[in-house]
Write a structure and sequence with these properties.
The complex is a heterodimer. Chain A is α+β, with helices and mostly antiparallel strands. Chain A has nine helices and seven strands. The chains are: A alpha+beta, B alpha+beta. The complex binds flavin-adenine dinucleotide and FE2/S2 (inorganic) cluster. Residues 39-45, 62-65, 71-73, 75-80, 162-163, 190-191, 225-228, 237-238, 242-243, 245-246, 282, 402-403, 425-427, 439-442, 445 of chain B line the site of flavin-adenine dinucleotide (FAD).
Chain lengths: 265, 637
């Protein structure tokens, strides 16, 4: 395959380097030269890393996989913004045409107590999995399902449910929130399932247990700053908080017994 | 090695029911005494792990990402097939079966495909019950669309994010079982070796990608759902981490590898923009429902903006060559046709490697709103990557490596030639023959995971009754040592070239010689070049850092080392198969551009047995019999 490259950019990167969770980290400066505006942000980091490896240095570690904005692996603060300057765009889908020749770019990992740094830009987001474990599912054992068309679901509800289900679990909402709250993530799942008939039987229990897990994981509370919604690459709306708050309130009012049984607080 | 397909006797439509009845059951109270390892948390792995746990087995599940939700399945866009016939347009289990066998160019097993078509209907029910927000009509019923090569509307979808929503359904079921204690999840763990004791698969050796620790995990059976090997080409639509390591290691330990040369090139990907390119992005095939594919009739027009090329100077070559299927021609045909017009010098965009996919007619007919509703997120993605607005200017697309039909050989029970080693999803070879139809991989992954393996694993466990083993078994220690030795070797080379530079070079070679069109002399060249490149890799690669930390270069090095061996097997298989079928197009075997299958000589599955390092692998053939679908030339004209 042949291809063309447009005029290259020269950039100064300031990147958070931290060898492991226990070690101290610091910002380190790198020059990135001849960067094509058609490159993605991660391809730019690939180029820098190839240069580092060639001279025997440790490349910058960052999580990535799909590079299509859907797996939620990539995530970093770029010039202070989660996933960088472009709205509704993950770091892997951000292209270097969003930057100018000579720019300084500051690259840091997500910062949150619940997301400890593993190395450089890689953080541990397993707290999200545990929030899902607490109730982010419908208990539909394989094989027990009725016909898919047995319960009609209005297109409006299905669409709204899908809007919330689009969350990719990247953690940008937590990183952007001054309280490092996981409320948008949690609310998105509660909304996705709560809008569907299949999600009704466990609806209140789900909201209660997921919120409790969120607290156990040391995420902060939501004070409706709205930064999460701004940072979300999938455009998950803060309106989903309404569903979460309502279900949570109703749950605490009606499910006291269940709660004490669980012993969580 | 003997290939026993274990296809049940009796009429096609009754085989699976009969088999389910005849299989041995594990008593409910005994299930928890059995431990099953599932490697992979994609659609196949997650659904299998969750379902086996629901049944009562103890399950350990592994993935290399930081969460099971990030498996490559998440990226599937277009949809999932099922023979529901909700549209009343003449679909049926039989038709889905027939289309899949024919679409696979008669290189798959009838019995497996029929079972897949039967199960397809249960999958949709299961996913709806889990809360998968499929697209719906205003009346509240499930919506369908027709997809790549199908003449009925049987594809279910959730916007352009079907894989994501299906995977989240399976992931949530998995997390539910993790919380219940039925599944122990190992994120950021990579399987690097298979443990075989007394001829049976009994465990795996993994590397904890954070601490670097090499660990053994033992069980009564192992299930691989580790996905496809499209990244042998470096540039593909697969996620960056997709690899062949798990299946290749199983091959080296005795599992036959089937049809490794059957790879699928997808016709609608965004063309490469430069040498920095790290992966290619798919534009869902559903776009071909409304987009029209064309290039300029004359090479001289290729540099003009598309709006300045009048209608009479455009060649809608798919509509011209395949009038009845037109823009919906199957993937292999559409891909080769694009290559052909670009080879003629009529391609557009950088390097002349692109064709137009034009929505102007559809926008005129349906309105912008409808097009946005259908493809909004894809159009946005296209614009983000190319900086061009597809509402105003036709998209540029080009074929790219997308899917691998080849995989570990499995019998009807999805067990490989190693007893106790089962293989599900894209990692096995079973259902798609030489070409997979659109929206059928998601169906197969979930069929295998939710509805096949949970039954067949019980039959294996009940009939094989594995003996207990412990981590100090000599075989376990030997396997751990071989993993460590290989890692030490990779870290010790300290040469001058990066892992990626080798991977790119291999990928380029594979694309040129074993890509969309292949011929004997090119394949022989590749077979000559690959060992040299491998040799250089082991002399001159540089892997910084140590084994006792998060070391992404080391992870890549191990995967590329395996691709450097496995790609040779792909070329050998392609060279041996002297016919053109599905995604495997041998230039010598064509009739004016149309593929020429040779059923007399090649109606078989190639199953390769590893014969040891430096020795030529041994070819075994599983003959394919077609009792229900008449062998015919695939024609989409
Ligand atoms: C861009 C794109 C779009 C697609 N769209 C569609 C579509 O619309 N419809 C359709 O039917 N199909 C589609 N496909 C194909 C389909 O998505 C895949 O074939 C399918 O999802 C594969 O699922 P899987 O479970 O077999 O493997 P994967 O989803 O690839 O999962 C593999 C799992 O194995 C793990 N793994 C791999 N190696 C190791 C190892 N060594 N150690 C530990 N863990 C390991 C990974 O961590 C992962 O969890 C698409 C594919 C692509 C690339
Ligand atoms: S790498 Fe998957 S979302 Fe960015």
């Amino acid at each position: 395959m042949t291809a063309t490259t447009k005029g290259g950019l020269s950039l100064t990167l300031h990147v958070w380097r931290q060898p492991n969770a226990a070690a101290a980290g610091k910002m380190v400066k790198y020059q990135a030269t001849d960067i094509s505006p058609d490159m993605s942000f991660l391809e730019m980091l690939d180029v820098v890393n190839e240069g580092l490896i060639a001279v025997g240095n440790d490349p910058i570690a960052f999580d990535h996989d799909c590079r299509e904005g859907i797996c939620g692996s990539c995530g970093m603060m770029i010039n202070g913004a989660a996933h960088g300057p472009m709205k509704l765009t993950t770091a892997c889908q951000l292209h270097m045409r969003s930057f100018k020749d000579g720019d300084d770019i500051f690259i840091e990992p997500w910062r949150a107590t619940a997301f400890p740094v593993v190395k450089d830009l890689v953080v541990d987001r397993s707290a999200f999995d545990r929030i899902i474990q607490a109730g982010g599912f419908v208990s539909a054992r394989t094989g027990a399902a009725q016909d898919g068309n047995a319960i009609p679901i209005s297109k409006v509800a299905a669409d709204e449910s899908m809007d919330a289900a689009a969350c990719i679990g990247c953690g940008a909402c937590v990183a952007a929130c001054p309280n490092a709250s996981a409320s948008l993530f949690t609310a998105a799942k509660v909304t996705h399932l709560g809008l569907l008939p299949q999600g009704q039987p466990e609806r209140f229990r789900r909201a209660l247990q997921m919120v409790e897990q969120m607290d156990l994981e040391h995420f902060g509370g939501c004070t409706l700053f709205g930064e999460c919604q701004e940072a979300c690459p999938k455009g998950i709306s803060i309106d989903s908080m309404m569903h979460l708050n309502r279900d949570f309130l109703l749950a605490t009012a009606t499910a006291k017994e269940e709660k004490s049984e669980m012993g969580a607080g | 090695m003997e290939l026993k397909s274990k296809i049940p006797s009796g009429p096609l439509a009754d085989k699976w029911d009969k088999h389910k009845f005849e299989m041995k059951l594990v008593n409910p109270a005994n299930k928890r005494k059995y431990h099953v390892i599932v490697v992979g948390s994609g659609l196949a792995g997650a659904s299998a792990a969750a379902t086996m746990s629901e049944l009562g087995y103890q399950v350990s599940c592994f993935c290399f990402q930081d969460s099971p939700r990030r498996a490559h399945s998440i990226a599937a866009q277009g949809g999932i097939n099922a023979a529901k016939n909700y549209q009343n347009d003449g679909d049926s289990i039989w038709r889905l079966f027939y289309d899949t066998v024919k679409g696979g160019d008669f290189r798959s097993r009838e019995a497996n495909v029929y079972r897949l078509a039967q199960i397809s209907v249960n999958i949709i029910d299961q996913c709806v019950a889990q809360g998968v927000p499929f697209a719906r009509e205003y009346g509240g019923l499930l919506a369908n669309r027709s997809f790549g090569g199908a003449q009925v509307s049987r594809t279910f979808y959730a916007r352009g994010q079907t894989g994501q929503q299906l995977l989240l359904g399976a992931y949530q079921a998995l997390e539910k079982e993790i919380a219940r204690g039925g599944v122990k999840m190992y994120n950021r763990h990579e399987m690097l070796e298979l443990v075989i004791v007394d001829g049976k698969a009994r465990g795996i050796i993994t590397r904890d990608l954070i601490t670097g620790e090499i660990e053994s995990h033992l069980a009564d059976a192992v299930v691989l759902g580790t996905g496809g090997y499209g990244n042998a080409y470096f540039l593909s639509t697969n996620a960056k981490g997709c690899n062949v390591t798990a299946t290749y290691r199983a091959y080296q330990r005795g599992a036959a590898f089937a049809n490794p040369c059957f790879t699928q090139i997808h016709p609608t990907c965004i063309p490469q923009s430069g040498d920095h390119q790290s992966k290619l992005t798919l534009m869902s095939e559903s776009l071909r429902n409304d987009g029209r594919v064309w290039v300029p009739k004359s090479q001289a027009d290729c540099g003009l903006p598309p709006s300045e090329i009048p209608e009479q100077n455009r060649d809608y070559y798919l509509e011209r060559k395949y009038p009845s299927f037109g823009n919906l021609s199957p993937r292999d045909i559409a891909s080769r046709a694009a290559k052909e017009v670009c080879d003629e010098g009529r391609g557009v965009g950088p390097g002349g490697r692109g064709v137009y996919l034009d929505f102007a007619d559809a926008i005129g007919r349906l309105g912008v709103h409808m097009i946005t509703e259908r493809y909004g997120n894809l159009f946005e993605m296209y614009e983000r990557i190319t900086d061009e607005n597809p509402y105003e200017r036709p998209m540029r697309i080009y074929p790219a490596v997308h899917y691998t039909m080849g995989g570990l050989w499995v019998d009807y029970n999805l067990m490989s030639t190693i007893p106790g080693l089962h293989v599900i999803g894209e990692a096995n070879f079973s259902d798609h023959g030489a070409n997979r139809l659109g929206a059928s991989a998601l169906m197969q992954g979930l069929a295998d995971g939710y509805f096949v393996i949970p039954y067949t694993i019980g039959d294996y466990l009940a009939s094989s009754k594995p003996e207990p083993i412990t981590a100090d078994h000599a075989e376990v220690r030997r396997s751990m040592e071989s993993v460590l030795a290989r890692q030490t070797r990779l870290l010790g080379i300290k040469g001058k070239r990066t892992v990626d530079s080798f991977h790119r070079q291999l990928g380029h070679l594979m694309w040129e010689k074993c890509g969309m069109a292949r011929n004997a002399s090119g394949l022989k060249e590749a077979l000559n070049e690959i060992p040299k490149l491998r040799e250089e890799f082991w002399q001159n690669v540089t892997v910084p850092g140590s084994g006792a930390e998060l070391n992404q270069s080391l992870e890549k090095a191990g995967r590329v080392a395996d691709f450097l061996e496995f790609s040779e097997l792909m070329c050998l298989d392609a060279l041996t198969r002297e016919e053109s079928c599905g995604g495997h197009f041998r230039e010598e075997y064509q009739d004016a551009g149309e593929a020429m299958r040779n059923d007399e000589k090649f109606a078989f599955v190639s199953a390769w047995e590893y014969a040891g390092s430096g020795k030529a692998p041994i070819l075994h053939k599983e003959p394919l019999e077609f009792e229900n679908v008449h062998l015919s030339t695939r024609s989409y004209k």
